Amino acid sequence: MLFTVKVVSQAEYDAQMQKLRDQDMTGRLGPEYNANNNLPGTDGNTDS
Asked: For the CA atoms of 17, 27, 3, 16, what is the dihedral angle to 10 degrees?
């Protein structure tokens, strides 16, 4: 997987985060997006 990364100032970052909050684009992803289901201590199915 490749990512394009842009280094920005703290002020730019804070402004972008506020813009997303203003659009109600906040929150955590649900457990259905957890890619670590088979790690020890999780309830992932290890049967193949």
From this structure: -10
Q: Which amino acid is at 11?
A: A
Model confidence pLDDT, tens digit, residues 7-44: 999 999 999 999 999 999 988 888 788 777 777 766 65
pLDDT at residue 47, rounded to an integer? 61
Residues 38 and 48: beta-carbon distance below 8 Å: no
User: For residues 45 and 34, what is the distance between their CA atoms, to the nearest angstrom?
Assistant: 13
Distances (CA, A) of 20 to 4, 5, 33, 38, 46: 20, 19, 20, 32, 37
For the question of whether the overall pTM of this predicted structure is more than 0.70, the answer is no
